[in-house]
Each structure stands twice: as structure tokens, then as C-alpha cells.
Specification:
- The chain is α+β, with helices and mostly antiparallel strands.
- It has 2 domains: about 90 residues, Orthogonal Bundle (Arc Repressor Mutant, subunit A); about 50 residues.
- It contains 5 helices and 6 strands.
- The strands form 2 sheets. Strands 1-3-2 form a 3-stranded antiparallel β-sheet. A 3-stranded mixed β-sheet has the order 5-4-6, with no helix packed on it.
- Helix 2 packs across helix 3.
- It starts with a helix and ends with a strand.
């Protein structure tokens, strides 16, 4: 007998379905379609607006509000990381491993920096009852 997980891999939405179920998310039609767009292929950084345009471009009918909700659900369940570069702009990263980013201010592009290339020499003490869960470094680049 073939295991259900193995069967899903041959289906067009099989990998997306597996990823959503593993994260404990109900695989709705919209979540499946967005997961397929986001997670098939190489890791990437995407804004909600860019994902909305991509979805519209391939015939996925979904509101921008649903895109934001879905991205935040994916982030809350560990499928993505949110990178806030300023008060007006955030990106969602499909690479959830420990790493940092270069941010190109003129183009708005993010580029991964491997974790081992950044050293934080000292962190402040944390308030009582807390611990550091992660340190995110965004190196802002101005092009000459």
C-alpha cells in the first residue's frame, strides 16, 4: 500500500498540501494556491502586493486582505518569516533557516546573508521571564 504522503507528491498541489497539513493549517483552495506559488522553486522574499499580482496573473482570484491574512498565518505556523524593513514595508521569506539580510534601499530588494557571516558581539540582558528567541540583522545598502 502506498502511503498518502507519497501519493500527494505526484499531484499538482501535493507538496503544498503536505506543507499546509504539517503546519496544522486547513488546506483551503486559496491557501493551497498561494502555497504552490510561494514554495515551489527557490526560496524568495515577497511582499503581499507582489504575491497578489502574481496570483492575479495566474488566475487566482483572491483579495489583498486574504493575501495578508494567509501570509501572517504562514508566518505564525513557521512556514515563513516576516522581515520588517521599515514602518511601511515588510517582506515574507520562504527560507526559515537562521540567516540575515542585505536590504538594497534604492530597489527594495532583499538578499540572504548566511548566519555564520554575522557575529553579534554582545546582547543586552533580557527582562525577567524572557529569553532571546532569534536575532535578525538587516544590513541596509545604499548604492553609490
Amino acid at each position: 500500500m502506498i502511503h498518502a504522503r507519497t501519493q500527494n507528491r505526484g499531484r499538482p498541489y501535493g507538496p503544498a498540501l503536505e506543507r499546509l497539513r504539517a503546519a496544522g493549517l486547513r488546506p483551503t483552495r486559496q491557501r493551497l494556491a498561494l502555497a504552490k506559488l510561494l514554495f515551489e522553486g527557490a526560496d524568495r522574499h515577497v511582499s503581499a502586493e507582489v504575491l497578489h499580482e502574481e496570483a492575479q496573473g495566474v488566475g487566482i482570484r483572491v483579495s489583498l486582505a486574504t493575501i495578508y491574512n494567509t501570509l501572517h498565518q504562514f508566518t505564525a505556523t513557521g512556514l515563513m518569516r516576516e522581515i520588517v524593513v521599515d514602518s511601511q514595508r515588510s517582506y515574507f521569506d520562504t527560507n526559515v533557516t537562521n540567516h540575515h539580510h542585505f536590504f538594497y534601499e534604492s530597489s527594495g530588494r532583499l538578499q540572504d546573508i548566511p548566519a555564520e557571516e554575522v557575529r553579534v558581539a554582545r546582547l543586552p540582558g533580557t527582562p525577567a521571564g524572557t529569553r532571546v528567541s532569534r536575532v535578525d540583522v538587516v544590513v541596509r545598502l545604499a548604492e553609490k
